[in-house]
Design brief:
The protein is of the alpha/beta class. Helices cover 35% and strands 15% of the residues. The two termini are 21 Å apart.
Length: 348
């Protein structure tokens, strides 16, 4: 699928019988994405040259590597494809992004060039949804508080005074964002007997989740666990502020494995610090999270360092998507995970 300012068309075939492929994934992640089997599959599709993004940061180094390249396989840290970099890669006909977010990679000049681009973000959806479910179960069962009580020196009987746990079966789960990750999370919660409602202004009438939709304020006020699965866009920045958080029932839990910009983190901290609600977070305004950040000291939170999508399995799936998309492109078939500029604006 060729993309020009959001308009899709049929992709052009590669200009060579064996396209020249530049594989550029950070050294620390390359083996996770590109197993020996995946590398062998790539070598069957074209002439592969592997160079770490760190070695491409100067325009001169980039030009030396990209001048004869037909296809880029990228991930984090790859140079932004602006007008200068595109001029240095005159044979570029396709970009396959092994990670998810494209914001740091593409530019106005890239979209104007009409070069097809696809990404492997779908590989991470099951992993992020599973972490969100793990958070949900842990908060409902008070695992975080019980663990903290025992580790902090509290005696056995005192630790057992932590508020009584809840089961997920019958719990009211609210989901902000019917994204692919949100849908995986919803399916998992419902499979365990939870009552799930969702807020997403873009749900269509025929969508299976439409019958479960509600307003944001209705969701906030009637959820035992609120999970964020919306993208970070201009529409969702600050979507949940102090007024919305105040609607949450006492003893409720807040789960965010999406983006911190969706919620007023200062307002959330005040609610959690008060002990009125608990939280589990994989994303923060400052990353890496500073050593002295006050979130670290709260006994009623679970914290992970923005690794929700980073599992052994998700990386292998991403490598598989890269290979599959390249096969599609080289054979002239539509790309399954291609993105347009409009898609990117909606996804955040």
């Amino acid at each position: 699928m060729n993309i020009n300012n959001g308009v899709a068309s049929t992709p052009p075939p590669p200009t060579t019988s064996r396209p020249r492929i530049l594989l550029s994934i950070p050294d620390v992640e390359r083996a996770a994405f590109i197993s020996p089997e995946t590398h062998a599959a790539l070598n069957q599709l074209g002439e592969v040259t592997a160079i770490a993004p760190a070695q491409l940061q100067s325009l001169e180094a980039f030009a030396a590597a990209a001048a004869e390249t037909d296809i880029f396989i990228t991930a984090w840290g790859f140079p932004r494809l602006d007008a200068e970099h595109l001029a240095a890669a005159p044979n570029l006909i396709c970009v396959v992004h092994a990670a998810s977010s494209l914001h740091a990679l593409v530019s106005d000049a890239f979209w104007a060039a009409g070069i097809p681009i696809t990404q492997a973000g779908a590989a991470m959806a099951p992993a992020v949804a599973e972490l969100s479910l793990t958070f949900t179960l842990s908060l409902l069962r008070r695992v975080h508080q019980l663990d903290h009580s025992l580790r902090s020196g509290t005696n056995w009987d005192d630790a057992r005074t932590v508020p009584r746990a809840r089961e997920i079966s019958g719990a009211r789960i609210g989901v902000v964002g019917a994204s692919r990750t949100g849908r995986r999370y919803i399916d998992a919660c419902r499979a365990l007997g939870a009552e799930v409602r969702v807020y997403d202004p873009y749900l269509l009438k025929g969508d299976p989740l439409a019958a479960s939709s509600t307003t944001l304020h209705g969701l906030m006020a009637n959820s035992d666990v609120l999970a964020i699965h919306a993208p970070a866009t201009s529409e969702t920045v600050g979507l949940i502020g102090a007024a919305e958080l105040a609607l949450m029932p006492d003893g409720a839990a807040f789960v965010n494995t999406a983006r911190s910009t969706i919620v007023d983190m200062e307002a959330l901290y005040k609610e959690v610090h008060s002990g009125r609600i608990d939280a589990a977070l994989d994303v923060f305004d400052a990353e890496p999270l500073p050593v002295d950040d006050p979130w670290r000291s709260l006994p009623n939170v679970l914290l992970t360092p923005h690794l929700g999508g980073a599992t052994v399995d998700s990386r292998r799936r991403a490598g598989g998507i890269v290979v599959d998309e390249l096969r599609r492109f080289i054979s002239g078939r539509p790309l399954e995970h291609a993105l347009t500029r409009t898609d990117l604006e909606r996804m955040g």
